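Before going further, learn to read the protein records used in this course. The integers have meaning only within a learned vocabulary of local backbone shapes. The record below shows the convention in full.
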Amino acid sequence: MAFNSNNPFLSNKRFSSNATSRAEEVHEAKIIDYNQEMTLSGTINKTAILFLILCASSMITWWMAFNGMNPMLPAIGGAIVGLILVVISAFKPQASPYLAPGYALFEGLFIGGISAIFELKYPGIVVNAVGATLVTFLVCLGLYKFRIVKVTEQFKSVVVASTLAIATYYLISWVVSMFTSWTPVHHGNSMMSIGISVFVIVIAALNLFLDFDQIEKGVQQRMPKYMEWFGAMGLMITLVWLYIEFLRLLSKLSSKD
């Protein structure tokens, strides 16, 4: 069983199906138009655009929180709409040029609200979380670029299995805590809780390698141009997850002081 990425945008099935379709188109036309194919530089540019949109929209709920207004309504709304756009894009990657910016816009509302809440309780935590996320991204990118870490099929299987286990645990914990007084073990600032956060961050970081690998394969397979937005959106999802987990870990460490 071949797993290439856990998020719906960078799945092996999605990329391979698009690659097959693209190959058939090229075979029929006998002409390759480079401007209509996925490129690495194009994907990087799209990722930068999505990042800027996310940062700009996050300032809305951030400003609300620090000006006496409740940012939770737009934050929750942004999270819901962002999730909907993720699902639609997973089934309609051709619409990624329109859905990806929308995802960044609404996800930014969520990120801004969550960040403001953490910042109000633990001043300085957002800067540290952003820095930790950026450093992790650059380290993983360097390790992948110089092939220090190789993305093998076994590597993919372990990372995806771990990611699914984490998602299942979070979902079950959330459902059970809604109907009982049970407190999930990953809550609080115990050593067990901190250890779980560290583990989740490691798995989130490992997912970056899968994302890099799939984007590189997409370029090599000469996929359609819209897959640049598709790949950029998948990478942003992983980065958002990583950032939130850093916020959670740093908040636990700060509460122990």
Observations:
- The chain is about 75% helix and 0% strand.
- The longest helix spans residues 191-220.
- Residues 9-255 form one domain.
- The helical segments are 12-29, 40-65, 72-91, 96-121, 125-145, 153-179, 191-220, 227-255.
